[in-house]
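Journal club prep — side note

Before the paper discussion, L.F. wants everyone to see what a predicted structure for a comparable chain looks like in token form. Sequence:
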Amino acid sequence: SDTRSSMMRVLCVLALASAIEAAGLGAMPNLRLRGGSKFSAMPASVKPGVLYGDAVKDLLQHAKDNCYAIPAVNCVTSSSINQVLEAAKKFNSPVMIQFSNGGSQFYAGKTIASPADTLQGCVLGAIAGALHVKQMAEHYGVPVVLHTDHCAKKLLPWFDGMLDADEKHFKEHGTPLFSSHMLDLSEEPHDENIATCTKYLERMAKIHCLLEMEIGITGGEEDGVNNEDVKTEDLYSKPEEVMQVVEAFSKVPNAMYTIAAAFGNVHGVYKSGNVKLSPEILGQAQAYIKEKTGSTEDKPVFFVFHGGSGSEKDKITEALKYGVVKMNIDTDIQWAAWDGVRAFEAANHDYLQGQIGNPEGADKPNKKFYDPRNWIRKSEEAAVARLGEAFADLNSVGVLA
């Protein structure tokens, strides 16, 4: 049955987590980031806590050189932030915590106003989430890139508000509030996409903040942006398009950036065979840019993998070889978090039908079952286990061991 299959999946993921922990990858000495045996030493700039500027670039370079990608997980509550930090510590992996526009609004509270001209509620939610991460990341002993996800043209007031907060934080503390932000103007004309991103990159470079931009279109639907009916050819970026980005951004002093180039990516989870990923497109782009720029690196570009949930493992591995240093993980973790709650309810159903009364007696209290700390914790545990599987797919397990 579907229930039995789902339970078997949870058990398999938990077994993976136990095996990794038993192998000595689950316990991390306090504040010791040396790089595991199959990885080169972690750069000295990469320390526990939120990373900024050169430390972010050093981590991305380490990922590219060692063929792993940093898991980037969307968060919508303090609990979802904590479960990502817990997973990063458990599996000895650096991590990216990111907030979408809708996730930021949820973090602030659905009743906090977000007028279209300011999107203030979304700005406040992203800032609140960022402050939580900054407070807790160092105490989990892991390096974190603090990021915001897709920002389409209609959401630019959200982006502007966060950059205002970054600049204020930089003036007061010498770093932006966020490590990086993403602009997704892939639905706009290509030249407009590059020009707008370049304008923002000039502003961001002055405060040592990294920009992620997207060319081509990620299919599917996420956070209210629906690309399910996009033309097939738009799901695959061309090397020349990537080169145009590199040429424009190279003119910006101190620019730090990553590119989410499309190679058939789709948001969400779809039946096997319905999505055709072609990571070799990234390899072709790397070779083209190396030739055109005369770079000494075989992989001169930092690429990002969007729509990673449900992707074939071999396609993920192939993408890592071509310079993918970050992969977004959302849908699979959403399911795992829900599945933890579902399994808890199924196991304790008769104790969750009222505050008083259960199979042990009509006057027996049920508080220990419906206390949110119990069922939310089961959600966190399931998400942590599933994150361990994702970290393994991205070859990042043990990077900090």
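L.F.'s comment for the group: Confidence is low (pLDDT under 50) at residues 1-5, 19-36. Keep this in mind when we get to the figures.
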